[in-house]
Design a protein that fits this description.
By secondary structure, the chain is of the alpha+beta class. It has two helices and five strands.
Length: 114
């Protein structure tokens, strides 16, 4: 499959995905990470991305692992249903969620509203 830049529908807070790269049961979401937070939380929006605050520091991928676990918990998914698509060393990441796309999109809307 050819790699291409994520497609971003118009408007802030929309899921990031490209139709050619995404399976029917997958939703891609852009997240903005706040490592070293006093507690882990998922919710709110910054520049159109879902905000994920994690207690783990941004060292040796620990914050990324914590983000994937926090996102799985927030969406009610198993950890294996959440994977990193891009942004291994960036505060802005794209994660793929596997499940019912309509249910995931509805939950994303709730989380973006905080």
């Amino acid at each position: 499959m050819q790699s291409c830049a994520p497609y971003r529908p118009a408007g802030p807070g929309r899921p990031v995905w490209h139709p050619a790269d995404v399976a029917e049961d997958e939703l891609r979401v852009e997240v903005r990470v706040r490592p070293g937070a006093s507690r882990t939380s998922v919710g709110g929006e910054r520049d159109g991305a879902l905000v994920v605050a994690v207690h783990a520091p941004a060292v040796d991928g620990r914050a990324t692992e914590a983000v994937l676990r926090a996102v799985a918990d927030a969406f009610g998914l198993r950890p294996r249903q959440v994977r990193l698509v891009s942004g291994q060393r960036s505060r802005t990441k794209v994660v793929a969620l596997t499940g019912d796309r309509a249910v995931l999109a509805a939950r994303l809307g709730e989380l973006l509203r905080g």
